[in-house]
Amino acid sequence: MEIKNVTVAGAGVLGSQIAFQTAFKGFNVTVWVRSDASIKRAKPKFAGLAQTYVDALEAMKTDLAAYCRGLAASDASAEELDALKAKAHKALASIRFTTSYEEAARDADLVIEAIAEDPAQKTAFYTELAAHLPERAIVVTNSSTLLPSMFAEATGRPEKYLALHFANQIWKNNTAEVMGHAGTSQEAFDAVVDFAAAIGMVPLPLHKEQPGYILNSMLVPFLNSAQALYATGVAEPEVIDKTWMLATGAPMGPFRILDIVGLTTAYNIVAMNPQANDPESVPGKIAALLKEKIDAGKTGIAAGEGFYSYQ
Ligand SMILES: NC(=O)c1ccc[n+]([C@@H]2O[C@H](COP(=O)([O-])OP(=O)(O)OC[C@H]3O[C@@H](n4cnc5c(N)ncnc54)[C@H](O)[C@@H]3O)[C@@H](O)[C@H]2O)c1
User: Fold this and answer.
1) CA 278 / ligand 1 centre spacing (Å)
2) pLDDT at residue 311, rounded to an integer
């Protein structure tokens, strides 16, 4: 099926990025949020994204390291990059905002749900949306930790419901993990794979449901192992990072990655482990060291300091 009209629900960190990237690639985009106050808050965010795209496209003219995979071909000429800058301005002007379920659903070929990571709130959203959606519409969730099978029935169209999971800063980090539940139709899955490619992402299909998808299934244990080495006194973060980088050729090590992810998120992940309540356990030691840093305001790159200082 052809996807042309896309509704994005939620205008937070990821919702705004997904909506802007989709409009930038020429789709008709409607953003659904809960209140007029949310629309007011969202608009400057979208203007900021447009500026980020324009700046990135300009930098790509002269700086190879500035290349953003989701924006243009790697060999785009200066003229092509200028044309894309104009497209970013056009995208900003084209996005429609609404608080009405009816308006959000009426013409939608695809709805991308990017509201808060709360099962009750997501279920309530899907249930209300289902009453207004046209038969053809596909619904996807960007949820990082919840599985599509949890919500398939609430959408009223289980065969047309699946996950499409983006990474933060989607214009650069253009992965799109595509994951159905057991009842997702092949047709809906394929349409979402094609859509992801059409908005400049690299579609990464999963054959079945997997908590954490592909990336976090690898990344979370990797970061946990690194934190365990530090928390149990085996080695310092700098030494652990250096080992990883020198031995594998990776551009950064686990503690640099933790600074980017943010130590609060890392803490929330380890705190979910019941063992973290025991201060003598490894998860308990990791939680304690993260908490000490967070309490000192050292929550990562965004705060100017985490495991490393960025002053
Ligand atoms: N932040 C990331 O790096 C990241 C990466 C991949 C996926 N995700 C996923 O994307 C989704 C959104 O995450 P985010 O980081 O953009 O969150 P966020 O907190 O920045 O934004 C959440 C949005 O949902 C809205 N919202 C909150 N409660 C709502 C409700 N009851 N009904 C409707 N809207 C509601 C908020 O107003 C906001 O617009 C989550 O499912 C998350 O797992 C986030």
Assistant:
1) 31
2) 84
CA–CA gap between residue 45 and residue 22 (Å, rounded): 15
Place of tokens 């099962």: 119
Task: Please give the residue range of the domain that contains residue 290.
Answer: 217-303
Kindly state the helix (H) or strand (E) to which residue 140 belongs, with its residue range: strand 138-141
Q: Among 265, 281, 227, which Cα is nearest to 13's?
A: 265
Straight-line distance from the first to the last Cα atom of the chain, in angstroms, rounded to the nearest whole number: 50
Three-class secondary structure assignment of 8-28: EECCCHHHHHHHHHHHHCCCE
Amino acid at site 295? D
Residues 193 and 233 in one domain: no
Ligand 1 probe mutation, 7, 8, 14, most atoms within 8 A of CB: 14
Task: Say whether both 97 and 126 belong to one domain.
Answer: yes
- pLDDT tens-digit series, residues 195-220: 999 999 999 999 999 999 999 999 99
